[in-house]
Design goal:
With 262 residues, the protein is α/β, with parallel strands linked by helices. The protein has 8 helices and 7 strands, in the order βαβαβαβαβαβαααβ. Strands 3-2-1-4-5-6-7 form a 7-stranded parallel beta sheet, with helices on both faces. Helix 3 runs parallel beside helix 4, helix 4 packs parallel to helix 5 and helix 6 crosses helix 7. Bound molecules: nicotinamide-adenine-dinucleotide. The site of nicotinamide-adenine-dinucleotide (NAD) has 29 residues, from helix 1, helix 4 and helix 6.
Length: 262
């Protein structure tokens, strides 16, 4: 029996990167999982099937678009209908865009706020009634070191991540007496497609080479001079789902190689 046997976890943005690591960690602890996100259908199906075969649990994919509140509610309903409950919700989907404020496209601002912040609000709303009814729940939001400190040229991302830290605290207070904990995890840099994709824009915005961006911007931020791994972030999320973590709520847990200690 794993710590999550008989439970169901929904992880938004879990077709790659940190989200996929969360889904695999929860499955390793016995949870059935609803994965979500974009990508090539064959790649999504391969990862879904691999979760089932590696961990002997059920995994299904929800194509819900985190830009659309109705689809987020449908994703939670799909999880409840398929498995009988949604016990763990991880609001993790995220996108990034790097540009000076005066050139920042309005549609990019709107999309980043919607996907990185508002989708968590909609997910939490949808999952609360079932969690309250069952008297147990774990809600985890992927924030970022950028929920605590800023970097130039990432205005929307920094604003959304500061926002999700505030949403986390508020939801934690509202749900504390229902045995539902709400926390966020704030990773430093993790080498995923999200980070890789922002390198050309950072090169342009700061006039640097790729190597300079990696060494003098990304790794420079982290005193350990190492990337965090997606599996390390997922292990912390799994800890938050256990009984030992029942008194951790409203927290913003940093895993950033010392970045925000500086
Ligand atoms: P990633 O690009 O590997 O994964 C992002 C996921 O979000 C993918 O599954 C993608 O399909 C999904 N997604 C994007 N738009 C979506 C939409 N409209 N609807 C549904 N799904 C959508 O990136 P990642 O680095 O694993 O990022 C995951 C989370 O971690 C994000 O919230 C990000 O801000 C946060 N984070 C990442 C880092 C890092 O260094 N990689 C650091 C701190 C926080």
């Amino acid at each position: 029996m794993g710590t999550l046997t008989g439970k169901t976890a929904v992880v938004t943005g879990s077709t790659s990167g940190i989200g996929l690591a969360y889904a695999r960690a929860f499955a390793s602890a016995g949870a059935n999982v609803v994965i979500n996100g974009m990508g090539e259908p064959a790649d999504i199906e391969r990862e879904r099937a691999k979760i089932e075969s590696d961990f002997s649990v059920k995994a299904v994919h929800s194509p819900a678009d985190m830009l659309k509140p109705a689809e987020i509610a449908e994703m939670i309903a799909f999880g409840e209908k398929t498995f009988g409950s949604v016990d763990v919700l991880v609001n993790n989907a995220g996108i990034q865009f790097v540009a000076p404020i005066e050139d920042f496209p309005i549609e990019k601002w709107d999309a980043i706020i919607a996907i990185n912040l508002s989708s968590a609000f909609h997910g939490i709303r949808a999952v609360i009634p079932g969690m309250k009814k069952r008297g147990w729940g774990r809600i985890i939001n992927t924030a970022s070191a950028h929920s605590l400190v800023a970097s130039p040229f990432k205005s929307a991302y920094v604003a959304a991540k500061h926002g999700i830290a505030g949403l986390t605290k508020t939801a934690a207070l509202e749900l504390a007496t229902f045995k539902i904990t709400v926390n966020c995890i704030s990773p430093g840099y993790v080498w995923t497609p999200l980070v890789e994709k922002q390198i050309p824009d950072t090169m342009k915005a700061r006039g640097l080479t790729k190597e300079q961006v990696i060494n003098d911007v990304l790794l420079q931020a982290q005193p350990t001079k190492q990337f965090v791994t997606a599996e390390q972030v997922a292990a912390l999320a799994l800890y938050l789902c256990g009984d030992d973590a029942s008194q951790i709520t409203g927290a913003n847990l940093s895993m950033d190689g010392g970045w925000t200690a500086a």
